[in-house]
């Protein structure tokens, strides 16, 4: 399980890179002329791009041996559940970020880092459940 967690962390770093790159492209080149585009649309698009990257890494790399039926339906169902868990993870991260800022008064970067550690562990647990091998295949 430690190897899976290391793979998870490495692929999430890739997702963070995708998020940052897409945010930069959207905010500086596509939606640069208005506040809503820069501050709402661009981060939403970049978040979803990172979710897609992270899902593909999980589906085809980290948990590939747990997927016994590679149909379109399974792929899209797992992606929907993965996407919802990513949003839940994001909301959990934000809750902890705000909690740490309120309790300790730390800088937002420190609060974000600590909140990312907590939400990252929860996202790994979510991944384990999303990509668990069917019971008939675990014997």
Number of strands: 0
Largest sheet at a glance?
none
Q: Looking at the structure, what is the overall shape? A: globular
Domains, number: 1
The portion of residues forming beta strands comes to under 5%
Structural class: mainly alpha
Low-confidence stretches: none
Helix content: over 70%
Question: Helical segment tally?
Answer: 4
Give the termini separation: 18 Å
Rg from Cα: 17 Å
Overview of this structure, please?
There is one protein chain. This protein is mainly alpha-helical and 139 residues long. It has one domain. It is built from 4 helices and no strands. The relative contact order is 0.11.
Write a brief caption for the model.
The protein has 139 residues and is mostly helical. It contains four helices and no strands. Helix 1 packs antiparallel against helix 2, helix 2 packs across helix 3 and helix 3 runs antiparallel to helix 4.
List strands and helices in order, with pairings.
Layout: H1 2-30, H2 35-62, H3 72-104, H4 108-130
